[in-house]
Design brief:
By secondary structure, the protein is of the alpha+beta class. The protein contains 5 helices and 7 strands; from the N terminus they run H-E-E-E-E-E-E-H-H-E-H-H. Strands 2-1-5-6-7-4-3 form a 7-stranded antiparallel beta sheet. Strand 1 and strand 2 form a beta hairpin. Helix 4 packs antiparallel against helix 5.
């Protein structure tokens, strides 16, 4: 991913927290000779040696998984808030732009066995059911419901590189107060989220 140096975030712990809170990602690889992308939850985890990895699964009806063995290198994309930035908010004339946060994760993918898939599903459901009024657990699902697991392919991605772009008007600190004030006036939740990120620069 092209990222000018002043927009790079090389604070790995901060970036990993971002991935955990924005884990509905996009898995990209080459499938049948074409770029292929699937929108799925991709959960950050660690192996027994403490190395970072991503866990996920896709439907067996999705042909993407059939190319995992031949094309092991994949890209996972995680998007954060974004917002248009009007140049009318600047003290000096300049072109408009866009503020955003995006993280690209590269790695080698491998298909999981049934036990590992089940373990990853427990982690996934338990993580998101915490916010539910009446949380469910895979432990309580019927045999009939659990048979649906046969229709998915679980995988892990052993991470080789993480690239993070946090474009938050870093090159225009003199305009930050006006930019943040104008973003707060919008009805766009992404704009307000960008303000919160800018406050933490």
């Amino acid at each position: 991913m092209y990222t000018p140096s002043h927009y790079k975030n090389e604070n790995l712990e901060e970036v990993k927290e971002f991935i955990k809170h924005n884990s509905f990602g996009i898995l990209v690889n080459q499938t049948n000779g074409r770029p292929w992308a699937t929108h799925i939850p991709l959960e950050l985890d660690q192996d027994d040696e403490g190395k970072d990895l991503l866990l996920g699964h896709i439907s067996k009806a999705n042909p993407q998984w059939k190319s995992f063995k031949e094309n092991k290198e994949v890209l996972a994309i995680f998007n954060g808030p974004h917002s248009y930035i009007s140049s009318s908010w600047y003290k000096e004339e300049e072109v408009p732009t866009w503020n955003y946060i995006a993280v690209h994760v590269y790695g080698k993918i491998q298909i999981l066995n049934d036990d590992a898939v089940l373990d990853s599903l427990h982690k996934l459901v338990d993580k998101y059911e915490k916010e539910s009024t009446n949380p469910v657990s895979i432990h309580n699902f019927s045999h009939k419901t659990m048979k649906q697991i046969k229709g998915i392919v679980g995988f892990r991605i052993d991470i080789s590189d993480i690239q993070a772009t946090y474009k938050l008007s870093q090159t225009r600190p003199e305009d930050h107060p006006k930019i943040m004030d104008e973003l707060q006036k919008t009805n766009n939740s992404g704009s307000k989220d960008i303000v919160n990120w800018m406050k933490n620069l």
